[in-house]
Amino acid sequence: MPVNARKKRPALANGKTCAEASAPLHMQIRDAIRRQVRDGELIDETGRLMTEAELGRHFGVSRITIRNAIAPLVTEGMFARSRGRGTFLRSNQPENWVGRLMGFSETIRDAGYKAGAKILQQGMTNRHDPEIGAQLRERAVWQLKRVRLADETPIAIEHAFYPPDIGLELEKRDLVSIIMYRVFEDELGFSIKDAKQTIGAELADASSAKLLGVKVGSPLLSIERVTFGEDGRALELLRAVYLPNYFRLSISLTRHS
């Protein structure tokens, strides 16, 4: 829900208000924005940040102070500005990745972008590494390889593999705009239980660099995810690389004595 811009002025770092903070005012506001957004405040359901005027009223400061506070957050990648639309939380915030199994389109749309895709490969294949066949328990699988877009900008390459019966159903649908997990649940009748995801990093080779518009050797975030149904069947094996400035993952750790 949209945040009420007229609610009581919040405390800043260390419980101090703007007037009490010893650090420069715009730095205190910057830290407060970062903290409150991570708590689900100041943004609406699309990830759009309050306007400068609304933030000024919220914190009781001038618009120039708000502008100076937001600028570093845009530079570091927490927010992205879209002319005519506003300032949006980028999809690299950890909250988008903790405890929720979402596909690319759901994640990107939650972050305020228009999701899209360009299809590179699709169809049945038995030319895959043994691990794919072992995970899906199939000799031949149906594959879908796409460049994924956020507001028409290529930010990821996803290569997914499915059991043949699922793949043959998927190819009847619009694979550019498909929201995969919703199709699984609402149209194909699969109940998704959970997924196992492995996170890594790699360097862009010539092919991925060209598709993503980066230099060869640029760092990429890589994942492999196997999604399971309620009966334990592997429904999808996804291998993907992402531009790291769009995605970040956060893991909570505890230490027991």
* Overall mean confidence score, pLDDT: 81
- The helicity comes to 25-40%
Distance from N terminus to C terminus (CA atoms, Å) equals: 40 Å
Note the run of SSEs as H and E: HHHEEHEHEEHHEHEE
Helix/strand/pairing category? alpha+beta
Query: Regarding CATH, which class of the largest domain?
Result: Alpha Beta
Q: Nearest-angstrom radius of gyration?
A: 21 Å
Counting DSSP H or I runs of 4 or more residues, the number of helices is: 8
CATH architecture of the largest domain: 3-Layer(aba) Sandwich
List how many beta strands DSSP finds: 8
What is the CATH homology-level superfamily of the largest domain?
A: Chorismate lyase-like
> Which blocks of ≥5 consecutive residues have pLDDT under 50?
1-11, 13-21, 92-99
Largest sheet: 6 strands, antiparallel
Give the amount of beta strand, in percent. Answer: 25-35%
Shape: elongated
What name is given to the CATH topology of the largest domain?
Chorismate lyase
Strand order of the largest sheet: 3-4-5-8-7-6
Number of domains: 2
